[in-house]
Amino acid sequence: MTQNLVEDAGRFGKRCPGGEELLGYIDRYQEILNKAPAVLVNFDLWENNLFYGKDANGSPRLWMIDPERGFWGDPIADFVCLDFMHMDLGEKAGVFEAYNAAAEKPLEVSPETRVRYYIMLAYLGVIMYTERYSRYHPGNTGWWRNTLAGSMLYKKAFGALKAR
Q: Is this prediction's pTM over 0.85?
């Protein structure tokens, strides 16, 4: 998926240096990534795409919308958008606890899980970097949002992966 995004940027006449760097980390951590379970990941979970309510019997229900960024992959990817402004996995303790309370297979925070998480954090950066060429122009708010958010994602992810 990362290679496809790098190639998409090329079709717009642009390089994607963050994507190229991420491909190096994917190669470096291939053994860890190959051990990750595969589930349906929404990868766009944030408060505007989640609705909570009760059904006619009063039972709690959660609805999700906007599955355009869904894919079959690592469940740790769901944590990238949840509580987005806290990009360190350790800052997401409450979200992690709630997830594990309901999960059939709870996730552990381990050195390997952290690698997988930071790979996915950088992957979102590649998506945001590349999509600005297809969805926005430099005068558009979305362009600048994606530029800033992508930079933040790269900085956090690559800093954590380099430190390992």
A: yes
Instruction: Give the position of tokens 């990534």.
Output: 33
Range list of H helices, the chain: 2-11, 17-28, 30-34, 78-81, 93-102, 111-135, 141-163
**Each residue's pLDDT tens digit, 79-115:** 888 777 788 888 888 888 988 898 888 898 899 999 9
What is the tally of structural domains in the chain? 1
CATH for 127? 3.90.1200.10
Parent domain of 15: 2-163
Angle at 104 between CA 101 and CA 109, to 5 degrees: 65
**β-sheet bridge partners, residue 50:** 64
Contacting residues for 35 by C-beta, under 8 A, at least 6 apart: 112
